Amino acid sequence: MVKSPKKRSDGQELFLYRLRRHRMIVCAARILILILFLFLWEVCADYGIIDSFIFSSPSRIALCFWEMVLDHSIFLHIGITLYETIVSFLLVTVSGILIAVLLWCSRGLSEILEPYLVVLNSLPKSALAPLLIVWLGATPTTIIAAGMSVAVFGSIMNLYTSFTTVDREKIKLIYTLHGNRRHALFKVVLPSSVPAIISNMKVNIGLCLVGVVIGEFLAARNGLGYLIIYSSQVFKMNWLLMSIVLLCIMAMALYAVIGIVEKIYRKKF
Amino acid sequence: MTPILELKNIDYSYHTLDGETKALSNISFSLTKGEFTAVVGPSGCGKSTLLSLIDGLMKPESGELLMNGEPLTENSSKIGYMLQHDHLFEWRTVYRNVLLGAEISRKLTPEIKKRAEELLEQYGLKQFARSKPSELSGGMRQRAALIRTLLLEPELLLLDEPFSALDYQTRLAVSDDIGQIIRKSGKTALLVTHDLSEAVSLSDRVIVLTKRPAAVARIVPISFDLEHDTPLIRRNAPEFKTYFNEIWKELNHDGQITEKTV
């Protein structure tokens, strides 16, 4: 179904053909699973095999989404969650790099702070959310802070580890070229840590979304997290499941954006 | 004439929680301008430590280091240091790798850029100037690393087993190549190696160190009566074997060297 048999005569062509076929099978299987899942869900709900009031159905979710598009209310919810996630992600990335650099610059400081970072990193961040509400009020600031709190400590620790595992001989090279520690940082440590920084960003974007949704559960009037909590309380399962689907799509899209950044970086270097 | 570099009674020890390891003990020798000197010794005897001390990366515990008769200041720009690996940065082009030293010393002038391009052309790397280091062969990478060092115009070159990361065949070719480049440039060079034939084929003088703590066991002057005195031709000369055996015996005489060191 793909290539003419003439081209397959070459060993390389055969290899490429097999590779392409394998990729197509994987891709087709993925789509098939999704379609099958949606179809079964829809059919089961329509024929009363599952209770559509509790489980909703794809068509009901789509309809619900369309209604909210028409009255524009969905854009506010998506927009605010997206805004809070992106802001907390950017803050985590910037502060993570800055603090990791600071720790790299001072071995003493990193040694002193290590146990604190470990404790803060392993602390369940949802425990902090109520505290943040009391301190900062039920505002987007609280939710951004909640988003940050989930990702920032792990981010600092990962980046610091990657900074300290840079090849010592490469740093020695800087000194043999009569450079100092600042040169080592800007010429070796940061450039060679870019792949680590990008993979750290991939983790952070997901964690920030988690933190933001937790924040919205507790202290919001808008946003998808708020929508989930509100709809579960009033038993609007269409809303709830639609919000979850939207969160899935949002997570995928944000991850894809970082993937594009990574591709651009790879092409350039 | 004042020697370009003079070491007087240098001592150095490493300190760890487990105790003290004496690395260098009472090392004294000097280098005259334009001379190519090799340092050989059993592995782990403190050869690299010696170079780090000369380059000012570490301070000797006692003793004196003089350059042109004056105490050596930290990180002297008159010294160029070539490490075991080329350490070309993959995120820079070959050209920008070569300019790294100049960039750090804030000497990125149009003249130095021109000189970098000249050197790249001279050493056959011109067409790779905009390439990534990974596109270069092992020998070409070493040349690029040498240009990076030479661009700062050091009076003294320190070479820390610069060929040891290469396979044997490349290694012969590259040491011949780099040896000739250094000879032609008239730089003073101090080469640290554990390869005796490399030491004999490249240098004017071989300093033999003892097992740790390293002390100077003997200094063997090397001279070949050859029309074209290149490292590869030296290897086929009759004197080569004599020198090799002499140094080999000196190392063995020490009673510490084992066969696997060769």
Can you describe this structure?
The complex is a heterodimer of chains A (about 270) and B (about 260). Chain A is mainly alpha-helical and about 270 residues long. Chain A has two domains: about 5-50; about 75-269, MetI-like fold (Orthogonal Bundle), CATH 1.10.3720.10. In chain A, about 85% of the residues lie in helices and about 0% in strands. Chain A contains twelve helices and no strands. Chain A has helices at about 10-45, 50-55, 60-70, 75-105, 105-120, 130-135, 140-165, 170-175, 180-190, 195-220, 225-235, 235-269. In chain A, helix 3 (about 60-70) crosses helix 12 (about 235-269). Chain A is flat. Chain A starts with 10 loop residues before the first helix and ends with a helix. In chain A, about 30% of the residues are buried. Chain B is globular, with a radius of gyration of 19 Å. The longest helix of chain B is centred in the last third of the chain and has 18 residues, at about 170-185. In chain B, helix 5 (about 140-150) runs parallel beside helix 6 (about 170-185) and helix 7 packs across helix 9 (about 240-255). Chain B has a single domain, classed as P-loop containing nucleotide triphosphate hydrolases (Rossmann fold), CATH 3.40.50.300. A six-stranded mixed sheet of chain B has the order 6-7-8-3-9-10, sandwiched between helices. A four-stranded antiparallel sheet of chain B has the order 2-1-4-5, with helices on one face. In chain B, a hairpin with a 2-residue loop joins strand 1 (about 5-15) and strand 2 (about 20-30). Residues about 255-260 of chain B have low confidence and may be disordered. Chain B contains nine helices and ten strands. Chain B has about 260 residues and is an alpha/beta fold. Chain B starts with a strand and ends in a 9-residue tail after the last helix. In chain B, about 35% of the residues lie in helices and about 25% in strands. The interface of A and B includes residues 167, 169, 188 and 191 of A.
